[in-house]
Amino acid sequence: MAFFAGLAAVGLGLLLGTIAKSQEQSAPFGATFVVILAAIGGVWVPVFAMPHFMQTISKLSPMNWGLNAFYDVFLRNVGIGEILPEISALFLFFIATTMVAIIYNERKNAV
Questions:
Q1: Please, which residues have CB within 8 angstroms of residue 17's CB and are 6 or more apart in sequence?
Q2: Looking at beta carbons, which pairs linking 105-110 to residues 24 or more positions away fall under 8 Å?
Q3: In contact, 26 and 20? CB cutoff 8 Å
Q4: Under 8 Å CB-to-CB from 38, ≥6 apart: which residues?
């Protein structure tokens, strides 16, 4: 689980690093983006305590996918079969963000 959560973080980092023009630009933008994903994903406030519309929005955050999978493993003692949806979502997030970063970098360098 930690491997796939790490891959998702690497993909997001690649994307933010590719889009930013400098380290000074990427550092605050990346930190802000991570804070927003954490707040939406239920890292700060449990999802069940959020209003219904925020519970729906929280399902879009990769931090929510990782958090739910870690809860399943550590608190609910489930096997790998039950966390496959979260692992798949995190891996697809890694693939998508990495592909966008590669395409953006190729187009940026082509000009």
A1: 26, 101
A2: 105/18, 108/18
A3: yes
A4: 44, 61, 63
**Cβ of 76: how many Cβ atoms within 10 Å?**
10
Looking at the chain, list the stretches that DSSP marks H as alpha helix, in order from N- to C-terminal side.
2-19, 23-41, 52-58, 62-74, 80-110
Q: How far is CA 22 from CA 13, 37, 101, in A?
A: 13, 22, 15
Q: In this predicted structure, what is the pLDDT of residue 10?
A: 96
What is the C-alpha separation between 10 and 66, in angstroms, rounded?
14
What pTM value is reported for the model? 0.90
Dihedral, 50, 52, 57, 62 alpha carbons, nearest 10: 50
What are 22's two structure tokens?
């400098």
CB atoms within 10 A of CB 35: 12
The token pair at 99 is 């592909």
Q: What average pLDDT does the segment 55-70 reach?
A: 95
